[in-house]
Amino acid sequence: MKILVTGGLGYIGSHTAVALQQAGFEVLIVDNMSNSSIDVLEGIATITGVTPQFKYLDLRDKEEVHHYFKTHRDIDGIIHFAASKAVGESVEKPLLYYENNLSTLVYLLQECTKYDIHNFIFSSSCTVYGEPDSLPITEDAPVKKATSPYGNTKQISEEIIFDTTQVSDIKAIALRYFNPIGAHESAEIGELPLGVPQNLVPFITQTAIGLRDQLSVFGNDYSTPDGTCIRDYIHVMDLAEAHVVALQRLLEKKNQVAFEVFNVGTGKGSSVLEVIQAFEKVSKKPLNYKVVDRRPGDVIAVYADTSKANSDLGWEAQRDLEEALRSAWQWEQKVRANKKEN
Ligand code: NAD
Ligand code: WQD
């Protein structure tokens, strides 16, 4: 079975490529390397023993996308990761986000209808829920008005996919990721943020390694037990494995409706201070941090109700917060050691 992984050189795509190959799928990757590098292919090959077929492709180029599908007629399914993902940047450059996250999706779905590709998995986000009315969040919780163009692209994407599945043979699953962290246990692949990390865990590991002076904790006066925000941090390999079972559900036609959504999280919320403490425990290093003002736009608490994924996909997260942080720390150490050598 041949599976096209768009954005397969990126953080989640590369870990999913590993999980797919280990489950026996043949992986084809397209990527424009706007937020990744070709070295990732080597990492995937080292772990799995197989180098995925790779093509440089900018999915915004409709002609090139068409040419790709015309010359690859035997694709059984698509997992679509390719997108821009920085929330703050999306506020500054909304059109870049609407173009990159929406036009690419439309072009791919057009090719699916032309070439009878019926299985489609989409990277959605818990950001579609905004500030939830109750916790843990189930999939039928209302989708709130997005607070950023990035979040809006995820909501619109889900609608585009839903509408398409109603008038075509395409069956689709949107996985709403909570907060992916960590790296493959081999430390051959991991997260590689460009510039100053916006997300908590890469900022923690870069601070611990000495690349940043201090972690700013954004607010400790929220209505949570320790005053800091709560998130559902999921190990990226658990997330990767969720894609494999979602794909199998589509291929085995076990889906109940043409478009399904699933929360992919651990079901457990952790506060920023709890993450810091867990990191200090696994790294055996004290972390230099300071509480500063709240970051505008942060929701107070989000964590998933994963019962739908547990029952329908037969999936649940296997790795805990400490294991995820340990892998993130091993990855950071390896990346910096390699940088020093070069
Ligand atoms: P990433 O930036 O590491 O990976 C995305 C990949 O897509 C990159 O390799 C990039 O070069 C590629 N890409 C971007 N635009 C492209 C284009 N026009 N043509 C071809 N390739 C293109 O991001 P990630 O963290 O792996 O996220 C993957 C998906 O998951 C995204 O859709 C993101 O919105 C979604 N998501 C991520 C998170 C998270 O916290 N990382 C959470 C929820 C949802
Ligand atoms: C986690 C917690 C911060 C950095 C973002 C996107 C979301 C999704 C995942 C794609 C928050 C706190 C952070 C720092 C801190 N992506 N923090 N100091 O905000 O839950 O979600 O990534 O879909 O759409 O918005 O993740 O890692 O940025 O923050 O105190 O330097 O850590 O305030 O409470 P977030 P995050």
UniProtKB/TrEMBL annotation:
<dbReference type="GO" id="GO:0005829">
    <property type="term" value="C:cytosol"/>
</dbReference>
<keyword id="KW-0520">NAD</keyword>
<feature type="domain" description="NAD(P)-binding">
    <location>
        <begin position="4"/>
        <end position="326"/>
    </location>
</feature>
<comment type="similarity">
    <text>Belongs to the NAD(P)-dependent epimerase/dehydratase family.</text>
</comment>
<dbReference type="Pfam" id="PF16363">
    <property type="entry name" value="GDP_Man_Dehyd"/>
</dbReference>
<dbReference type="InterPro" id="IPR016040">
    <property type="entry name" value="NAD(P)-bd_dom"/>
</dbReference>
<keyword id="KW-0413">Isomerase</keyword>
<protein>
    <recommendedName>
        <fullName>UDP-glucose 4-epimerase</fullName>
        <ecNumber>5.1.3.2</ecNumber>
    </recommendedName>
</protein>
<dbReference type="InterPro" id="IPR036291">
    <property type="entry name" value="NAD(P)-bd_dom_sf"/>
</dbReference>
<comment type="subunit">
    <text>Homodimer.</text>
</comment>
<keyword id="KW-0119">Carbohydrate metabolism</keyword>
<dbReference type="GO" id="GO:0006012">
    <property type="term" value="P:galactose metabolic process"/>
</dbReference>
<dbReference type="InterPro" id="IPR005886">
    <property type="entry name" value="UDP_G4E"/>
</dbReference>
<dbReference type="GO" id="GO:0003978">
    <property type="term" value="F:UDP-glucose 4-epimerase activity"/>
</dbReference>
<comment type="pathway">
    <text>Carbohydrate metabolism; galactose metabolism.</text>
</comment>
